[in-house]
Amino acid sequence: MKLYNTLTRKKENFVPISNEEVTMYSCGPTVYNFAHIGNMRTYIFMDLLRRCLQFEGYTLKGVMNITDVGHLQSDADDGEDKMEKAAKAQNKSPYEIAAYYTKVFNEDLEKLNIQSPEIVAKATDHIDDMINYVVELQKAGYAYETSDGIYFDISKFPKYGQLSRIKLDEQMAGARVEENTEKRNHQDFALWKKAEPTHIMQWESPWGMGFPGWHIECSAMSTKYLGRVFDIHTGGVDHIPIHHENEIAQNEALTKKKSVNYWMHGEFMLVNNGKMSKSLGNTYTITQLEDMGYSPMVFRYFCLNAHYRKKLNFTFEGMEACKKAYNRLLAALYLHKMSDNVAPAEKLEKYKKDYAEAINDDLNVPLALGILFTMTKEEPSKDYFALALEFDKVFGLSLENSQPINEDETKDEIPSEVSDLVNARAEAKANKDWAKADEIRAKITELGYSIKDTKDGAVVSKL
Ligand code: AMP
Ligand code: ZN
């Protein structure tokens, strides 16, 4: 299996540390608000990766964090804590805010058929692990104390920037005037922040009352569950330059060697080719899409049509096209499901092989979907339906729900050529000539129509 590694900028053969299980960490949501469809694209990518690994026979130990403290307005430690800001605005406690948005996030995962990783770790449940981690870093000489917190001294870690390939001096050149004059270097980042009395979430620590930095959360929780060296780390591309560089610095300061073998990043979702942001009013949630008549499966299908390393532009025209295509796919599969025909073994083998090649080539899911579409055009056979369900272990598109096309799309006129065939098929069925009936059904499909037998006779609709 080949996976693209951001660290080396190459597709590499995937070789896990242990044959027993693959260890994988995914940066999870900051639960101060509803996750938008861009966020969900990143979790669909995580899910596809998990499913491809499972399809290849690997057992997974996946960890995803839930950030419920410490993520400040800017990823580079400036501004208010996102949780506390939301709590103030809604007149609730940050814990209530976290519980509510975590619940909605989990519902979104379920709607989108995203498997929850084996371990979901809440930051506030791991404060002691984070404190211990910072103590270790301090002992090892990588951290120093200022009046407002404990910072990582990046001048002690000359490899800083290896993931984003930005040289430290280049970063320095573009740096803003530093507000925090006690920091030794501009990119030094907070491991622990000392809390003002008004800060709601705060814990005792060797440095007084305070709360963890966002980056230490991921290092503490990933290494706690997966060990100091693990296989795969995922996140969105926005995490490459700060968050993941900082995780690497924190991890490797202690391990003195590579701590994550494969770094994988999902590209962004755009809206009308631009940035998706709450202030522009162009973010949508899965629930909003549902209210507009787009099922979560249509959104998942939309995401699967683009490779995870390509930007994906969200438009409603695109969603409309996906809605139609997804329904066509379900209707085409329905014909296979209802058929008793046996498919030629060589054809089944070929589809299986092409499919496996696609998903093993750095998760080429769009290509794998194309292979599924080609297969549905074969003469109907229950074997193709069974194979489609096998493929769906990665797609996660609920293909078992295959059904004839929607009622409202059946209103088009049926050409006489098709209705003649429908009558001929009814006649063949009456004569118990099943082979002929199936043959006629295949012709009907070829003409772009599906046929469903009901107690009131056959119902024909456009594919
Ligand atoms: P957050 O809750 O802000 O920490 O973000 C959760 C995840 O969504 C992170 O892995 C981000 O990289 C990712 N993300 C944020 N915006 C987008 C977007 N427009 N498209 C895809 N992923 C995104
Ligand atoms: Zn993270």
Structure, described:
The protein is built from 15 helices and 15 strands. The chain has 463 residues and is α/β, with parallel strands linked by helices. It folds into three domains: 17-266, HUPs (Rossmann fold, 3-Layer(aba) Sandwich); 281-409, Isoleucyl-tRNA Synthetase, Domain 1 (Orthogonal Bundle); 416-462. The strands form five sheets. The protein has a five-stranded parallel sheet with strand order 5-4-3-10-11, sandwiched between helices. A four-stranded antiparallel sheet has the order 6-7-8-9. Strand 14 and strand 15 (457-462) form a beta hairpin. The structure holds adenosine monophosphate (AMP) and zinc ion.
Would you spell out the secondary-structure blueprint of this structure?
Elements: E1 2-5, E2 10-13, E3 22-26, H1 37-55, E4 60-66, H2 82-90, H3 94-111, E5 119-122, H4 127-139, E6 143-145, E7 149-152, H5 168-173, E8 189-194, E9 210-212, H6 214-226, E10 230-236, H7 240-255, E11 260-266, E12 269-271, H8 286-291, H9 296-304, E13 312-314, H10 316-338, H11 345-360, H12 365-376, H13 382-395, H14 416-430, H15 434-446, E14 449-454, E15 457-462
Helix pairs in contact: 2-3, 4-6, 6-7, 9-10, 10-13, 11-12, 12-13, 14-15
Bound molecules: adenosine monophosphate (AMP) and zinc ion.
